[in-house]
Design a protein that fits this description.
By secondary structure, this protein is mostly helical. The chain contains 12 helices and 2 strands; from the N terminus they run ββαααααααααααα. It has one domain. It has a two-stranded antiparallel ribbon. Strand 1 and strand 2 form a beta hairpin.
Amino acid sequence: MAGPLLPLEIPLVHDVLGHGPTIPSAPMAQPRPAALPPAERTIGQLVAESIRFYGEHFRACLALGLAPALLAVISANVSRATLVVLSPTLFGALLSASFVGASVLVLDRRPPRRRLVETWLVGWLVFAPVPFLVLAFVLPGLAWLAAIGMVVPVLVVEDLSVREAVARAWRLARADFLHAFGSLTTLAIVVFLTQAVLAFILRGFGGAAVSTAFFLASVVVSPLLFIGAALLYVDQAARVE
């Protein structure tokens, strides 16, 4: 008598009844590698940590973009002569306010109001020449901020006089100037490109006016630059210590 055409026991292969080996499923996503300590943090990790912090504190950080967005709109609608006057005055004051706010938020410090005003005034002096340096070429402006810009978070965190804070900021910059300069340059490029793409999307698909598109894009994207600059203080301080 002939045997059965099918075996009595149908094997289970990869939990699929009666089938041959199936295509293996994709491996599970690996957990994110642990971040390096600030003293060893790379430029890419600083940018990544800045994005992560922004995402976790989105509403609080969004206010940091109001000043740069206002400056972008003003710059596009005034004459060059007016722009020369506004750059070291109004622009410097507003950018300093955003950086002070970012330093307070990122570094989780709440200095007295008098100290905040002092920090804002010093930051205003730091930002005053930046527009002129940027007009010459963007890199000199970033180099200036890398060299002396950390005086703002120094004044927020450390109990130093203004003169001591300037010296401390310069010491932090010299601890790893390439990291400081490279981080600010990378953040500036990321912010610029992301802001341009977002403005294009808002203009092309959202139907917003050009000035409105750039204002909204700047509000959303520009806080990343100030957040990264505040985190840079942590990296440089760890390198000194």
